[in-house]
Design a protein that fits this description.
Elements (H helix, E strand, L loop, with lengths): L1 H22 L2 H22 L19 E3 H14 L2 H18 L4 H5 L8 E2 L2 E2 L7 H5 L5 H9 L12 H20 L6 E3 H10 L2 H7 L10 E2 L8
Antiparallel strand pairs: 1-4, 2-3, 4-5
The chain binds iron/sulfur cluster.
């Protein structure tokens, strides 16, 4: 039943995403997807008896491992270059570089169970909120106590999530479909560790050219392999 409802959401999103990727730039296609996704998530929350507990200045999940598709990393880079001061950009870059160095020798699981502040978390709020990646956009909880537990005991993977089913269906159906549409368009649809991809994208402008040329966008950023589920 759950799978069936996710598939229904995915079918509708896939058609829209494929049409957008043919008509407008990858960046604009992503922004259109984010707009549809936000509407779906809001509608899911409105129809659910259980409500998300997420609110402004709640940041526990911003210490979990963050991942993003190449198309999403470039949207963040674009946003940061237009909206951040040089000092803010350098602060985010320094934080991301430190995060990359800190987890350099760790396995995926060790990395996943290590708390790290996201480089875009500033004063308890997301500084790239309009273009935060799907992993963050989709993540939600109905019980903050579970988020606090995961934050305080990051190596304890037995702590259950507290998803709102209606939001889970809307967000996962939408994301899966958009990702398939990006793959179909021939663009790099890999999932990358956000810290290392952001650092590489800022330091090497050729990453964006590779992406637009439908090649693997990043050469040194960590790729998340199939089956390695991200926490956020
Ligand atoms: S991108 Fe924004 S929402 Fe996502 S982990 Fe970073 S600060 Fe939090």
């Amino acid at each position: 039943m759950l799978e069936q409802r996710i598939a229904e959401v995915a079918r509708a999103e896939f058609e829209s995403a494929v049409a957008d990727l043919r008509k407008v730039s990858p960046h604009d296609s992503l922004l259109r997807f984010y707009s549809r996704q936000d509407e779906r998530i809001a509608a899911g929350a409105a129809t659910s008896a259980v409500k998300p507990a997420c609110h402004k200045n709640c940041w526990y999940c911003c210490y979990y491992k963050v991942e993003a598709r190449a198309i999403e990393v470039f949207a963040i880079v674009d946003f940061v270059k237009r909206q951040f001061t040089e000092q803010e950009l350098q602060t985010a870059l320094k934080c991301a570089s430190q995060n990359v160095e800190e987890v350099g020798g760790l396995s995926y699981k060790q990395h996943m169970t290590t708390n790290q502040k996201c480089p875009f978390l500033v004063d308890g709020q997301c500084s790239v909120y309009p273009v935060r990646p799907s992993k963050c956009r989709n993540f939600h909880a109905s019980d903050v106590a579970r988020c606090v537990e995961s934050y305080e005991r990051p190596t304890d993977l037995t702590i259950p999530n507290s998803y709102v089913t209606e939001i889970f269906i809307a967000s996962h159906g939408g994301s899966e479909a958009f990702e398939r549409a990006v793959e179909l368009s021939g663009l790099d649809h890999r999932m990358y560790d956000l810290n290392s991809a952001f650092v590489e994208a800022i330091e090497n402008p050729k990453c964006l050219k590779r992406f637009k040329d439908r090649k693997k966008a990043f050469l040194t950023a960590k790729v998340v392999q199939v089956g390695e589920a991200g926490a956020v």
